[in-house]
Model the fold of this input.
Amino acid sequence: MHFKLISMLLTISVIGTGCIADGSSAAATSLPTPDFVTATLPPTSIPLPTQTSLPPTAIPTIQPIEGTTNTQINVRAETSTASESLGILPAFTKVQVTGKDASGIWLRIVYAEAPAGFGWVRAEFVPVDASAEIPVVGVETGSGAGRSGVVLSGINVRSGPGIQFELLGVLVQNDVVPVLGKDESGAWLQIEFAESPDGKGWAAVEFLQVDEVESLPVVGVEMPEEQAIEVTAQTAVLDGDSAGAPLAEFTLAPSALRAFLVSGEVSAPNGDAEDRVTFNAQGVAVTIELICSTQFLQVELWNNGIRSDTPPVCGEVIILKLPVDGLQQIRLFAEGASGQEYARYILKVSVIQ
Done:
Protein backbone atom coordinates (compact mmCIF):
# COMPACT_ATOMS: atom_id res chain seq x y z
CA MET A 1 0.00 0.00 0.00
CA HIS A 2 2.90 2.37 0.87
CA PHE A 3 4.52 1.62 -2.47
CA LYS A 4 1.38 2.63 -4.35
CA LEU A 5 1.18 5.98 -2.52
CA ILE A 6 4.81 6.85 -3.27
CA SER A 7 4.37 6.04 -6.95
CA MET A 8 1.36 8.29 -7.27
CA LEU A 9 3.13 11.19 -5.50
CA LEU A 10 6.08 10.93 -7.87
CA THR A 11 3.74 11.01 -10.83
CA ILE A 12 2.03 14.17 -9.64
CA SER A 13 5.42 15.86 -9.10
CA VAL A 14 6.51 15.08 -12.65
CA ILE A 15 3.29 16.50 -14.07
CA GLY A 16 3.85 19.80 -12.17
CA THR A 17 7.42 20.17 -13.51
CA GLY A 18 6.20 19.68 -17.04
CA CYS A 19 3.83 22.63 -16.71
CA ILE A 20 6.68 24.96 -15.70
CA ALA A 21 8.91 23.97 -18.64
CA ASP A 22 6.07 24.92 -21.09
CA GLY A 23 7.37 28.54 -21.26
CA SER A 24 4.49 30.13 -19.33
CA SER A 25 5.44 33.10 -17.20
CA ALA A 26 2.67 32.49 -14.68
CA ALA A 27 3.80 31.01 -11.43
CA ALA A 28 2.60 27.49 -10.86
CA THR A 29 0.03 27.13 -8.15
CA SER A 30 1.00 24.43 -5.72
CA LEU A 31 -1.86 22.01 -5.03
CA PRO A 32 -2.07 20.03 -1.84
CA THR A 33 -1.13 16.42 -2.31
CA PRO A 34 -3.82 14.02 -1.09
CA ASP A 35 -2.89 11.49 1.52
CA PHE A 36 -4.39 8.70 -0.55
CA VAL A 37 -6.36 8.07 -3.74
CA THR A 38 -9.49 5.91 -3.85
CA ALA A 39 -9.99 4.01 -7.11
CA THR A 40 -13.63 3.42 -8.15
CA LEU A 41 -13.94 -0.12 -9.51
CA PRO A 42 -16.80 -1.29 -11.78
CA PRO A 43 -19.43 -3.35 -9.99
CA THR A 44 -18.69 -7.04 -9.95
CA SER A 45 -21.41 -9.05 -11.68
CA ILE A 46 -22.68 -11.83 -9.48
CA PRO A 47 -23.64 -14.91 -11.53
CA LEU A 48 -27.25 -15.94 -11.12
CA PRO A 49 -27.86 -19.45 -9.89
CA THR A 50 -28.53 -21.86 -12.75
CA GLN A 51 -31.18 -24.57 -12.64
CA THR A 52 -29.64 -28.01 -12.40
CA SER A 53 -31.17 -30.25 -15.05
CA LEU A 54 -32.43 -33.53 -13.73
CA PRO A 55 -31.43 -36.76 -15.47
CA PRO A 56 -34.15 -38.13 -17.81
CA THR A 57 -36.49 -40.68 -16.33
CA ALA A 58 -35.43 -44.13 -17.37
CA ILE A 59 -37.98 -45.88 -19.58
CA PRO A 60 -38.48 -49.46 -18.44
CA THR A 61 -37.18 -51.95 -20.97
CA ILE A 62 -38.65 -55.33 -21.76
CA GLN A 63 -36.45 -58.20 -20.70
CA PRO A 64 -36.13 -60.46 -23.77
CA ILE A 65 -37.27 -64.06 -23.48
CA GLU A 66 -35.25 -66.71 -25.28
CA GLY A 67 -36.93 -68.94 -27.85
CA THR A 68 -35.73 -71.43 -30.45
CA THR A 69 -37.14 -71.91 -33.94
CA ASN A 70 -38.40 -75.44 -34.60
CA THR A 71 -38.31 -75.00 -38.39
CA GLN A 72 -37.00 -72.64 -41.04
CA ILE A 73 -39.15 -69.52 -40.85
CA ASN A 74 -39.58 -66.09 -42.40
CA VAL A 75 -39.18 -62.97 -40.29
CA ARG A 76 -41.93 -60.56 -41.33
CA ALA A 77 -42.30 -56.80 -41.12
CA GLU A 78 -45.87 -57.21 -39.83
CA THR A 79 -48.10 -59.94 -38.41
CA SER A 80 -49.00 -61.47 -41.78
CA THR A 81 -47.39 -63.84 -44.26
CA ALA A 82 -48.37 -61.30 -46.92
CA SER A 83 -46.16 -58.62 -45.36
CA GLU A 84 -42.55 -58.02 -46.37
CA SER A 85 -40.09 -60.81 -45.55
CA LEU A 86 -37.14 -59.30 -43.68
CA GLY A 87 -35.13 -62.52 -43.79
CA ILE A 88 -35.11 -66.24 -43.04
CA LEU A 89 -34.06 -68.02 -39.85
CA PRO A 90 -32.91 -71.66 -40.05
CA ALA A 91 -34.32 -74.33 -37.75
CA PHE A 92 -32.96 -74.37 -34.17
CA THR A 93 -31.95 -70.70 -34.25
CA LYS A 94 -32.08 -68.99 -30.85
CA VAL A 95 -34.02 -65.71 -30.83
CA GLN A 96 -34.87 -63.01 -28.29
CA VAL A 97 -38.63 -62.50 -27.90
CA THR A 98 -39.69 -59.01 -26.78
CA GLY A 99 -43.47 -59.18 -27.16
CA LYS A 100 -46.52 -60.65 -28.87
CA ASP A 101 -49.55 -59.32 -30.71
CA ALA A 102 -52.98 -59.18 -29.08
CA SER A 103 -53.96 -62.56 -30.53
CA GLY A 104 -50.82 -64.30 -29.26
CA ILE A 105 -50.33 -65.86 -32.71
CA TRP A 106 -47.29 -63.73 -33.60
CA LEU A 107 -44.15 -62.97 -31.59
CA ARG A 108 -41.94 -59.91 -31.92
CA ILE A 109 -38.24 -60.78 -31.89
CA VAL A 110 -34.99 -58.86 -31.95
CA TYR A 111 -33.78 -58.83 -35.56
CA ALA A 112 -30.77 -56.61 -36.25
CA GLU A 113 -31.18 -56.78 -40.03
CA ALA A 114 -34.59 -55.06 -39.86
CA PRO A 115 -34.76 -51.25 -40.18
CA ALA A 116 -36.60 -51.04 -36.85
CA GLY A 117 -34.39 -53.66 -35.19
CA PHE A 118 -37.20 -56.19 -34.78
CA GLY A 119 -39.48 -58.47 -36.81
CA TRP A 120 -42.47 -60.81 -36.40
CA VAL A 121 -42.61 -64.62 -36.47
CA ARG A 122 -45.37 -67.16 -35.95
CA ALA A 123 -45.52 -68.29 -32.31
CA GLU A 124 -46.13 -71.92 -33.26
CA PHE A 125 -42.68 -72.05 -34.84
CA VAL A 126 -40.81 -70.47 -31.89
CA PRO A 127 -41.43 -72.39 -28.64
CA VAL A 128 -40.59 -70.49 -25.44
CA ASP A 129 -40.74 -71.32 -21.75
CA ALA A 130 -44.41 -71.92 -20.91
CA SER A 131 -44.07 -69.95 -17.67
CA ALA A 132 -42.65 -66.88 -19.41
CA GLU A 133 -44.86 -63.78 -19.37
CA ILE A 134 -44.65 -62.22 -22.83
CA PRO A 135 -46.09 -58.68 -22.91
CA VAL A 136 -48.60 -57.64 -25.56
CA VAL A 137 -47.13 -54.94 -27.79
CA GLY A 138 -48.76 -52.80 -30.43
CA VAL A 139 -48.42 -53.56 -34.12
CA GLU A 140 -47.55 -50.51 -36.21
CA THR A 141 -49.40 -50.38 -39.51
CA GLY A 142 -49.38 -48.03 -42.45
CA SER A 143 -52.75 -46.49 -41.64
CA GLY A 144 -52.51 -46.57 -37.88
CA ALA A 145 -55.83 -48.42 -37.69
CA GLY A 146 -56.43 -50.10 -34.37
CA ARG A 147 -58.68 -52.97 -35.52
CA SER A 148 -57.21 -56.30 -36.60
CA GLY A 149 -58.56 -59.63 -37.77
CA VAL A 150 -57.33 -63.21 -37.51
CA VAL A 151 -57.51 -65.37 -40.64
CA LEU A 152 -59.54 -68.50 -39.85
CA SER A 153 -58.50 -70.44 -42.97
CA GLY A 154 -56.61 -69.84 -46.19
CA ILE A 155 -58.30 -67.07 -48.21
CA ASN A 156 -57.84 -65.08 -51.40
CA VAL A 157 -57.28 -61.34 -51.21
CA ARG A 158 -58.86 -59.31 -54.02
CA SER A 159 -58.68 -55.74 -55.27
CA GLY A 160 -62.36 -55.17 -54.48
CA PRO A 161 -65.30 -56.64 -52.52
CA GLY A 162 -66.22 -59.52 -54.82
CA ILE A 163 -64.85 -62.50 -56.71
CA GLN A 164 -65.08 -60.51 -59.95
CA PHE A 165 -62.18 -58.33 -58.78
CA GLU A 166 -58.52 -59.05 -59.48
CA LEU A 167 -56.79 -61.64 -57.28
CA LEU A 168 -53.93 -59.99 -55.38
CA GLY A 169 -52.66 -62.89 -53.29
CA VAL A 170 -53.48 -65.24 -50.45
CA LEU A 171 -53.45 -65.26 -46.65
CA VAL A 172 -52.94 -68.36 -44.54
CA GLN A 173 -54.59 -69.47 -41.33
CA ASN A 174 -53.59 -67.44 -38.25
CA ASP A 175 -52.35 -64.45 -40.22
CA VAL A 176 -53.25 -61.25 -38.35
CA VAL A 177 -54.13 -58.32 -40.61
CA PRO A 178 -55.18 -54.71 -39.94
CA VAL A 179 -58.85 -54.17 -40.87
CA LEU A 180 -59.73 -50.78 -42.36
CA GLY A 181 -63.45 -51.04 -43.15
CA LYS A 182 -66.23 -52.98 -44.86
CA ASP A 183 -68.35 -52.75 -48.00
CA GLU A 184 -72.02 -51.71 -47.92
CA SER A 185 -73.24 -55.30 -47.60
CA GLY A 186 -70.83 -56.15 -44.78
CA ALA A 187 -69.82 -59.35 -46.61
CA TRP A 188 -66.33 -58.10 -47.46
CA LEU A 189 -63.70 -56.40 -45.31
CA GLN A 190 -61.00 -54.04 -46.50
CA ILE A 191 -57.60 -54.94 -45.06
CA GLU A 192 -54.01 -53.78 -45.32
CA PHE A 193 -52.19 -55.93 -47.88
CA ALA A 194 -48.57 -55.08 -48.64
CA GLU A 195 -48.50 -56.83 -52.03
CA SER A 196 -51.26 -54.60 -53.41
CA PRO A 197 -50.28 -51.49 -55.42
CA ASP A 198 -52.09 -49.23 -52.94
CA GLY A 199 -51.36 -51.38 -49.89
CA LYS A 200 -55.00 -52.48 -49.49
CA GLY A 201 -57.11 -55.51 -50.37
CA TRP A 202 -60.45 -57.18 -49.69
CA ALA A 203 -61.28 -60.50 -48.03
CA ALA A 204 -64.58 -62.29 -47.34
CA VAL A 205 -65.80 -61.65 -43.80
CA GLU A 206 -66.59 -65.32 -43.06
CA PHE A 207 -62.89 -66.16 -43.19
CA LEU A 208 -61.82 -63.46 -40.72
CA GLN A 209 -62.36 -63.22 -36.98
CA VAL A 210 -62.97 -59.53 -36.21
CA ASP A 211 -64.59 -58.01 -33.14
CA GLU A 212 -67.53 -55.60 -33.63
CA VAL A 213 -67.69 -55.76 -37.41
CA GLU A 214 -70.84 -53.64 -37.28
CA SER A 215 -68.89 -50.61 -36.06
CA LEU A 216 -66.41 -50.66 -38.96
CA PRO A 217 -66.69 -47.74 -41.39
CA VAL A 218 -68.23 -48.39 -44.81
CA VAL A 219 -65.74 -47.96 -47.66
CA GLY A 220 -67.11 -47.00 -51.06
CA VAL A 221 -65.82 -48.93 -54.09
CA GLU A 222 -66.29 -48.40 -57.81
CA MET A 223 -67.53 -51.58 -59.44
CA PRO A 224 -65.45 -52.77 -62.40
CA GLU A 225 -66.88 -52.23 -65.86
CA GLU A 226 -68.03 -55.33 -67.66
CA GLN A 227 -65.42 -55.43 -70.37
CA ALA A 228 -62.61 -57.64 -71.45
CA ILE A 229 -59.52 -57.02 -69.33
CA GLU A 230 -56.15 -57.91 -70.77
CA VAL A 231 -54.21 -59.90 -68.20
CA THR A 232 -50.44 -60.20 -68.47
CA ALA A 233 -49.38 -63.82 -68.07
CA GLN A 234 -47.01 -64.34 -65.15
CA THR A 235 -43.94 -66.53 -65.27
CA ALA A 236 -42.37 -68.36 -62.33
CA VAL A 237 -38.61 -68.04 -61.90
CA LEU A 238 -36.65 -71.21 -62.65
CA ASP A 239 -35.17 -72.74 -59.49
CA GLY A 240 -33.59 -75.88 -60.96
CA ASP A 241 -35.10 -78.47 -58.58
CA SER A 242 -35.88 -82.05 -59.59
CA ALA A 243 -36.98 -85.38 -58.09
CA GLY A 244 -33.41 -86.09 -57.00
CA ALA A 245 -32.69 -82.52 -55.90
CA PRO A 246 -35.90 -81.13 -54.37
CA LEU A 247 -36.62 -77.50 -53.64
CA ALA A 248 -36.67 -78.25 -49.88
CA GLU A 249 -36.15 -81.31 -47.67
CA PHE A 250 -37.17 -81.83 -44.02
CA THR A 251 -37.20 -84.47 -41.29
CA LEU A 252 -40.14 -84.18 -38.88
CA ALA A 253 -40.30 -85.56 -35.32
CA PRO A 254 -42.40 -84.70 -32.23
CA SER A 255 -39.28 -84.00 -30.16
CA ALA A 256 -37.50 -81.93 -32.81
CA LEU A 257 -38.80 -80.30 -35.98
CA ARG A 258 -42.62 -80.43 -35.75
CA ALA A 259 -43.68 -78.38 -38.77
CA PHE A 260 -42.47 -76.66 -41.90
CA LEU A 261 -43.91 -74.17 -44.35
CA VAL A 262 -42.86 -73.66 -47.97
CA SER A 263 -44.15 -71.02 -50.38
CA GLY A 264 -43.43 -70.94 -54.08
CA GLU A 265 -44.73 -70.48 -57.60
CA VAL A 266 -44.97 -72.53 -60.79
CA SER A 267 -45.94 -71.70 -64.37
CA ALA A 268 -46.23 -73.48 -67.73
CA PRO A 269 -45.45 -73.72 -70.55
CA ASN A 270 -43.09 -70.81 -69.80
CA GLY A 271 -41.16 -70.57 -66.54
CA ASP A 272 -40.58 -73.04 -63.71
CA ALA A 273 -43.17 -75.76 -64.29
CA GLU A 274 -42.75 -77.72 -61.04
CA ASP A 275 -41.50 -77.69 -57.45
CA ARG A 276 -40.73 -80.74 -55.32
CA VAL A 277 -40.69 -80.85 -51.51
CA THR A 278 -39.39 -83.95 -49.71
CA PHE A 279 -39.88 -84.91 -46.06
CA ASN A 280 -39.60 -87.84 -43.66
CA ALA A 281 -41.93 -87.97 -40.65
CA GLN A 282 -40.55 -91.16 -38.99
CA GLY A 283 -43.83 -93.03 -38.62
CA VAL A 284 -45.97 -90.24 -37.16
CA ALA A 285 -49.23 -88.76 -38.40
CA VAL A 286 -49.13 -85.36 -40.07
CA THR A 287 -51.52 -82.78 -41.46
CA ILE A 288 -50.91 -81.31 -44.90
CA GLU A 289 -52.46 -77.92 -45.69
CA LEU A 290 -52.22 -76.39 -49.16
CA ILE A 291 -53.29 -72.88 -50.18
CA CYS A 292 -53.33 -72.03 -53.91
CA SER A 293 -53.81 -68.73 -55.74
CA THR A 294 -55.43 -70.31 -58.84
CA GLN A 295 -57.00 -73.57 -59.99
CA PHE A 296 -54.05 -74.25 -62.30
CA LEU A 297 -51.92 -75.87 -59.58
CA GLN A 298 -51.66 -79.66 -59.82
CA VAL A 299 -50.42 -81.79 -56.91
CA GLU A 300 -49.01 -85.30 -56.53
CA LEU A 301 -47.86 -87.17 -53.40
CA TRP A 302 -45.18 -89.84 -53.78
CA ASN A 303 -44.05 -92.43 -51.21
CA ASN A 304 -40.80 -94.25 -52.02
CA GLY A 305 -41.41 -93.79 -55.72
CA ILE A 306 -45.11 -94.82 -55.62
CA ARG A 307 -47.74 -92.18 -56.34
CA SER A 308 -50.53 -91.88 -53.75
CA ASP A 309 -54.20 -91.93 -54.68
CA THR A 310 -54.98 -89.18 -52.11
CA PRO A 311 -52.78 -86.15 -52.86
CA PRO A 312 -53.21 -82.82 -51.07
CA VAL A 313 -56.01 -80.62 -52.43
CA CYS A 314 -55.96 -76.83 -52.65
CA GLY A 315 -57.90 -75.22 -49.83
CA GLU A 316 -58.20 -78.41 -47.77
CA VAL A 317 -56.35 -80.08 -44.92
CA ILE A 318 -55.62 -83.81 -45.06
CA ILE A 319 -54.34 -86.16 -42.36
CA LEU A 320 -51.71 -88.67 -43.38
CA LYS A 321 -50.27 -91.60 -41.39
CA LEU A 322 -46.75 -92.15 -42.66
CA PRO A 323 -44.60 -95.29 -42.61
CA VAL A 324 -41.67 -95.57 -40.23
CA ASP A 325 -39.14 -95.14 -43.00
CA GLY A 326 -39.15 -93.84 -46.52
CA LEU A 327 -39.35 -90.38 -48.00
CA GLN A 328 -42.50 -88.52 -48.93
CA GLN A 329 -42.32 -86.16 -51.86
CA ILE A 330 -44.93 -83.61 -52.89
CA ARG A 331 -44.85 -82.48 -56.50
CA LEU A 332 -46.53 -79.16 -57.27
CA PHE A 333 -46.78 -78.26 -60.94
CA ALA A 334 -48.62 -76.48 -63.75
CA GLU A 335 -49.42 -78.21 -67.04
CA GLY A 336 -50.01 -75.28 -69.37
CA ALA A 337 -52.84 -77.06 -71.19
CA SER A 338 -54.89 -73.87 -71.59
CA GLY A 339 -52.10 -71.48 -72.46
CA GLN A 340 -49.80 -69.79 -69.97
CA GLU A 341 -50.80 -71.02 -66.49
CA TYR A 342 -49.43 -69.57 -63.25
CA ALA A 343 -50.06 -70.42 -59.60
CA ARG A 344 -48.63 -69.46 -56.24
CA TYR A 345 -48.90 -71.80 -53.28
CA ILE A 346 -48.24 -72.15 -49.57
CA LEU A 347 -47.60 -75.68 -48.27
CA LYS A 348 -47.65 -76.46 -44.55
CA VAL A 349 -46.93 -79.87 -43.03
CA SER A 350 -47.26 -80.39 -39.25
CA VAL A 351 -46.84 -83.32 -36.88
CA ILE A 352 -50.07 -84.23 -35.04
CA GLN A 353 -49.48 -84.10 -31.29
Observations:
- The chain has one helix and 22 strands.
- The chain has a mean pLDDT of 78.
